[in-house]
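Lecture notes, unit on protein representations.

Consider one protein chain, 478 amino acids long.
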Amino acid sequence: MRELARTAIEAALRAGATYADARVEQRERETVQVKNGRVEGVERGDDTGIGIRVIADGAWGFAATSDLTATGVALAARTAVRIARAGARVPGAPIELSPLAPVNAEWHSPCKTDPFTVPLEDKVSLLLDLDQAMRHHKEIAVAESQTSCYRTTKTFANSEGSDITQQTTECGGLLQATAVGHDEVQTRSFPSALEGYHAQAGWEVMGVLELEEGAQRIGKEAVALLTAPECPTDVTTVILDGSQLALQVHESCGHPIELDRVFGTELSLAGGSFLSPDKVGMQYGSEKVNIVADATAPTGLGTFAYDDEGVPAQRTPIVSEGVFQNYLSSRETAPRVGSDSSGAMRADGWQNAPLIRMTNINLEPGDWTLDEMIADTKHGILLQDTKSWSIDDQRLNFQFSTELGWLIEDGSLTRMVRNASYQGITPEFWNSCDAVAHRGEWRMWGVLNCGKGDPMQVMHVGHGASRARFQNVRIGIK
């Protein structure tokens, strides 16, 4: 892999590039699915290729190939240079990269038990047992469960002298129970609706998820939701559970800090951002709100040693005591705001050029417990697990619906409600946060389907969160 990367760089420089980098990637993936007591599918695959990025005549060029012969790699490198020169005919400022010292390194994410070596029959047996636990109630019409594992081995090199090899292993699973009856259809998910729970770890992650208990609980809750009252329409106190808070952070904090969105150079799929450069220093949230971008966090799906430009992983303050501080940036965008890259460039596979992507965007823990938040709430609602969401193309106005809601009355959870939803405006919502749960309730959640770009790239990202409380939130929108 190192030889292929160096071959690409040398060919690009000979063709006239002033800068070149190359990523050789091998990706493996496996998914096992069970539905209503039967194996629904087993998918396993791998792919390998090289992506080559160059600067020539002051413009970017990119090409990729799965032909990993010296001839095929050199041809792709020359193609990248031709593309750059074609792009340079369009007037524009020449590319400027923030400085970066060359690195020679090798890194592997922690993995105690290789998930690809766990026998298939063991995985199927586990899922069938969980399927049976979910279908304990006759109203459960559909029970679905799956395990997934991923491994990426990547070698990066550039014309500045870097040579980096990294390997990441990810593993996790999802359970979903759908109940039908009383002219209703209701679904509950476990460990969350964010594709379940996945972490940068091996098969050992499955042993700490309490899957049997979760399967029984979501089957019972899905049935109970069929006859639960509708979520009331109100302006009230809202407590978000961990996985729902993770997606709230993702949509209203993670995407708007991507600096290519801010500059309008990447608007596909998810739009731009209200966080223009003059917003640094704005009151983004209350003093309880502390958000970091941390590519060093253990088990996070956005954890690595170096990004796809060879920039070291970093922990970057984004919001400190409510004040907006920093963006996610690249070597190209960082100089425009007077800084160096935050190390946030990643690509979905060898065939794609890297984009600014979320790492692990985490809401730092506070000093409350969930029980204390509930006891301190006169009237409100606890919301769990995302059902659907929408947010405008500037990441300001949003609406989320959740699988489950629990009314809070006089400091106690009382009734379950169905079809719960809430809406808000990003800065107003985060400024209404008056309590965040402590480290003991904090968890690193994973998102497997973060889409961006055209053609779209799907990235795995992480979000650490516990629970948090927000005041004067509109709920129950029809």
